[in-house]
Amino acid sequence: MGVVIESSIWEPNPALFIFIFISCLFSIFLFPYASNNSSNKTSTLFDHGIPSSFLRFQRKFLFLYSLASAMEGLWSVFGEFELAYYGVSREQMVLYLCVGSAAALFVGTFLGVLSDLIGQAKFCLIFCILHLFVGIWKRITSHPSVMVASICLSLTSSIFSFSFETWMVVQHEKQGHRQDSMSDTFWLMTFFESASFIGSQVFANWMVGDNLEKNIVSPSTAAIFLAMISIICFTRGLTGTIQTTAFTEYRTSFNAYIFGDKRIWLLAWAQACLHFSIAVFWILWAPTLVADGRELHLGLIYPCLLGARMLGSTVFPWLISGPSSLRTEDFLVYSFIIMGLVLSIVAYDYQEIGVLVTLFCIFHACIGLILPSLAKLRTMYVPNELRGGMISLSLAPANAAILLFLIQGGYYRNIGNAAVMAFAALGLLSAAGSASTPAS
Questions:
Q1: What's the domain range around 339?
Q2: Does the predicted model carry a pTM greater than 0.85?
Q3: Chain-wide mean pLDDT for the chain?
Q4: Boundary residue ending a domain (250, 267, 301)
């Protein structure tokens, strides 16, 4: 049976944007009425008894986290298009991705440990400085070295994966805020991160406009501006001072609490599988959609995916403190299974664009639910002073797998895209098994 290639450019129905937006609003604003009927009510974002000191701390942190998310999102707006503009070939693009993954594996893996030793706030500041450097580098160089930018941005992504969360948790405990109020910050982090990604896409496209040759470096100007604001905020005493930990003492604690706890090993594996599947998705989602010559507006699908992730994050408070409270491990298992099945369908069954976009939205809705859930479990099982090292080391298997598949699949083309997605699906299904174990 022949495949019919669509002749028109496919666009998502505008009603989808409206549906996601309204669903997020209803999920957020209806939650207080539902949680009031729960016999197991916990602290929520809408409690009137929340101390003003905590609200100030939370708002300042979410502001900084949103700035950091916007900086991360700015560099991914044009992606391959920007590289092609600078004359980079496909083989060179894959090579630069491999170099970036190698930097994340061989350097980024140990940055979390270093952040625990010298202070999480300093690493948040390093994150901003690296973004500032890349922005200035692209502004002052007519043909900037993609290799340098790839390494720096890979390191910023590694730092972003642990530094802000770890800094927030340490400061939350240091300032004496209630432990149960931290869950609200976790899902709000995912919500604001996704919203910032969408905002960075809109802002970057607005800055570039129709004059690509003149304005291709405009997003770099925005990144410089955001980085400078973040650096000012961090250097004005917002983060406080964290005592440096002795390495010998840290290593002893790490061996006892991290390497010696099976629950943390399983939690780390779930985090690694999630990280790998997300990386695989963002590498392969566009080639999957445009297969067989199909034409579509990727820029209109991108906010749908992140909007679905925002919606998934708003479901988190419903599940942990709503009318029918569930154990975090329970809905983690279901979410991982759904994600694994979605990737399995995409890998082995040809689908129309509308079906693929729907599956991708379901995939990201599950991500929005899983991210705050894993953060909550880390708070339950991982000591705060070891949190950064645990997160960065847990990503090492994922970064190694990403590097392997980039070399074999992208550079040498020995592995097809379907096989990579199938491997990611198997990882997600194995993560479902590991997520069901920690509490037992």
A1: 258-440
A2: yes
A3: 87
A4: 250
